[in-house]
Amino acid sequence: MKIVKDSLVKLERTILDDHDEQFDSVKAILHDVKNNKDEALRRLTEQFDHVKLNDIKVSKAEIIEAYGAVEKRFIEAVKQAISNIQSFHEKQTRQSWMDTSPSGTILGQLIRPLAKVGIYVPGGRAAYPSSVLMNAIPAQVAGVEEIVMVTPPNKNGKVNPGVLIAANELGIKQIFKIGGAQAVGALAYGTQSIPKVDKITGPGNIFVALAKKEVYGLVDIDLVAGPSEILILADETANPKLVAADLLSQAEHDPLSSATLITVSERLAYQVDTEISQQLQHLPKREIAAESIEKQGAIYVVSSIAAAVQMANDFAPEHLELLVKEPFSYVGQIKNAGAIFVGENSTEAIGDYFAGPNHVLPTGGTAKFSSPLGVDDFLKKSSLISYSKNDLDEYADSIATLAQFEELQGHANAVIFRKQNS
């Protein structure tokens, strides 16, 4: 792993923004789905996933079959994770409000859930039951009544049993065996089988990301997710074996995943480098992780934790771990991070699956202005205005003055005429 010794350097991401060829393909796929609906979905699934589907929708029999394909402890773990994630997101709920002034004017905000949401669950390199939980639970807590799930089928035309169990435990009834840009198109436009939704959330490959970007405006989306990232700030008290394990936990996602360590200890830097080499030998996805570590990974040795914090804030990582002495003393200094993991026991993997906070996080530096997926993402807000006659008469001239300054006499008239008629 690359080791850089510098008091303060700027962390750089590998920017992959040349997607013209993929974008052209995505636009063609979306156009096909918009016009040909289910017929296009079946044809594109056969073309890209090499599966000929008779039924697009997952049947009850397939869900029952899924329960027989996993161990009981997996089902129990899913139930425990659901409880934790629900409990966390229930604390994010908000209520509509109204405020009445002494003059009788009523102002407020009405908060309502979205009616219908689509969630995309990956199924390419791997299947992720956790993605079902993290996308569906905040929607359910928000009060969304209809959740439509899409996920790619395997070569046998089946959906991963863990994914089906996670969906069933949450009561999701509409599950479709469609993936890729075509699934995004189905959710955005609607087909004979798949209903049109108001918002699409969930991670996917570059084709899924570009498709979400293209349909934004017709529907809402959560974010355009980039490769996963972990940044660890560590001092001489950190355990090199645990630091290496946490770096590899993100590197195994994708060759483009970013795993970075910033430390004040040169000794720790070399210990972690050695540990990574050793742990890679026993990692099932070692080829993916090794490519990520080689091309995207780095260890930076800096002069102080303050310098490390400055670098971290500039980088704005998806996941940030504080493996330092008295880690809570630095939490207040962290300005930009999707999720902050404090102390040795708080490995990023806990956040991915179980603790409760959402693992759908801003990547690519967007933590500077974006937040984790949450209940608010599935709510819409309407302003409420009921102006009293007293306030209309008192402020009509001020309102008209502002409108006339903007040369919008019609706006001014709408207020002036009301005052004149009172």
UniProtKB/TrEMBL annotation:
Residues annotated as binding NAD(+): Y120, Q182, N205
InterPro entries: Ald_DH/histidinol_DH, Histidinol_DH_CS, Histidinol_DH_monofunct, Hstdl_DH
Keyword Repeat among UniProt keywords: no
Keyword Amino-acid biosynthesis: yes
Cofactor note: Binds 1 zinc ion per subunit.
Coiled coil: none
Active-site residues (renumbered): E318 (proton acceptor), H319 (proton acceptor)
Pathway: Amino-acid biosynthesis; L-histidine biosynthesis; L-histidine from 5-phospho-alpha-D-ribose 1-diphosphate: step 9/9
Residues that bind substrate: S228, Q250, H253, H319, D352, E406, H411
Entry GO CC: cytosol
Keywords: Amino-acid biosynthesis, Histidine biosynthesis, Metal-binding, NAD, Oxidoreductase, Zinc
Cofactor entry: Zn(2+)
Domain of life: Bacteria
Family annotation (Gene3D superfamilies): 1.20.5.1300, Nitrogenase molybdenum iron protein domain
EC number: 1.1.1.23
Residues annotated as binding Zn(2+): Q250, H253, D352, H411
Class of this enzyme: oxidoreductase
GO biological process annotation, one example: L-histidine biosynthetic process
GO molecular-function terms, A-Z: histidinol dehydrogenase activity; NAD binding; zinc ion binding
Family affiliation: Belongs to the histidinol dehydrogenase family.
PANTHER family: HISTIDINE BIOSYNTHESIS TRIFUNCTIONAL PROTEIN (PTHR21256:SF2), HISTIDINOL DEHYDROGENASE HDH (PTHR21256)
Protein's job: Catalyzes the sequential NAD-dependent oxidations of L-histidinol to L-histidinaldehyde and then to L-histidine.
Name this polypeptide is given: Histidinol dehydrogenase
